[in-house]
Design brief:
FAD/NAD(P)-binding domain, five-stranded parallel β-sheet, 22 strands, 24% helix, binds flavin-adenine dinucleotide
Length: 340
């Protein structure tokens, strides 16, 4: 038989957003449960050094998340190491189901984050955090003076390139097509950078290295006329690469930033408004004087959101934590206003 437990707030996700929200709601005296998800701690579990979270100087991502979890559990919050399988919002209390639990909540904070869309090449998992990254603002510092690549052709690839080009010695932007999807203004800015070169019509077949990235295995089928090379050999030589066969070659690199998109974890939510990329849509509410009342509301009254699951722009641990705090404050206000 499944166990049913009722809470003031159910927090879905145990990244910086969810855990920060939990600190606040618990300290407000609200009964709080965190459903941690398959990767408790979220995206920072995937990284090594974090050097931009205030108060810590330099800390390993997993250690930072351990500290956040200890803080939350130290306050008496239950953190369940299970994933939500559904959220029923057609009536209140809301119902969250996991494999063998049914939780009832007067409110819910959706803080399920986003997962990097990785390349899916064989050695990627092994070299993640060892030269393979998905966050230039977070990791740029480690690539000072190094030769790196960025993979992608959209706005986020352009942003990553601009950030990393400030510190890296040279950057190769690898795009599988002949034209970028990114806004022209952003592309123009990238093209104007003296240390950035582009490889069009080129796919990443694998990343190379034992304990750290040393190169990228590429496949260039049709050399784009934009490259200005007459032959495959010319192209490979111009980039200092090593030819493997008529289409495959290895580009020596110490870092590669994967910027082919993020996938917000919203697939399980029915009835929750998301944008065309799957990010939760916030519904800001103001009072009669135009003063902001709620920032983290969603289209479902009583369901709030925090962190990368709604934020396609800032995507940092500190901003996610900030949104977690805001969602908790909104929940407290909501429960007071509705007398729940
Ligand atoms: C490699 C890498 C390095 C980074 N380095 C830095 C850095 O140095 N500094 C920095 O500020 N930022 C960094 N970031 C970005 C930062 O990690 C994110 O912005 C931040 O983690 C977002 O927090 P979040 O709580 O919104 O989501 P996440 O961290 O994505 O956490 C989401 C949580 O939701 C859970 N979840 C998902 N689905 C469900 C479900 N169905 N039920 C319950 N739970 C669920 C997940 O298990 C996870 O616990 C890095 C990101 C990556 C990928």
């Amino acid at each position: 038989m499944t166990k049913k437990i009722m809470y003031d707030v159910i927090i879905l996700g145990s990244g910086p957003a969810g855990l920060t929200a939990a600190i606040y709601t618990q300290r407000f005296g609200l009964s709080t449960v965190v459903v941690a998800g398959r990767t408790w701690g979220g995206q920072l579990q995937l990284t090594t050094d974090v050097e931009n979270f205030p108060g810590f100087g330099k800390i390993m991502g997993p250690e930072l998340m351990r500290k956040m979890r200890d803080h939350v559990e130290g306050l008496g919050v239950k953190v369940l190491d299970v994933a939500a399988e559904s959220l029923e919002t057609s009536k209140t209390p809301f119902v969250v189901t996991t494999e063998d639990l049914t939780l009832e909540g007067k409110t819910v904070i959706v803080a399920t984050g986003a997962d990097t869309k990785w390349l899916g090449v064989p050695n990627e998992g092994k070299l993640r955090g060892r030269g393979v990254s998905s966050c230039a603002p977070c990791d740029a510092f480690f690539f000072k003076g190094k030769a790196v690549a960025v993979v992608g052709g959209g706005d986020s690839a352009m942003e990553e390139t601009q950030v990393i080009a400030k510190v890296a010695s040279d950057v190769v932007l690898i795009h599988r097509r002949d034209a970028f999807k990114a806004q022209k203004a952003m592309v123009d800015k990238v093209m104007a950078l003296p240390n950035v070169r582009v490889l069009y019509n080129t796919q990443v077949a694998d990343v190379v290295g034992d304990t750290a990235l040393t190169g990228i295995l590429l496949r260039t089928e049709n050399i784009s006329p934009k490259q200005g090379f007459d032959s495959f050999d010319q192209l490979v030589n111009a980039f200092g690469g090593k030819k493997i066969d008529d289409h495959q070659w290895e580009l020596p690199r110490q870092g590669v930033f994967v910027a082919i998109g993020l996938v917000p974890n919203t697939q399980i939510f029915k009835g929750l408004d998301v944008d065309s990329h799957g990010y939760v849509k916030r519904v800001e509410e103001r009072d009669e004087n135009g003063v902001l009342k709620y920032f983290t509301k969603t289209n479902i009254p009583g369901v709030f959101t925090a962190g990368d699951v709604h934020d396609a722009r800032y995507k940092q641990a500190i901003t996610a934590a900030g949104f977690g705090c805001m969602a908790a404050l909104d929940v407290q206000r909501w429960l007071t206003e509705t007398g729940s």
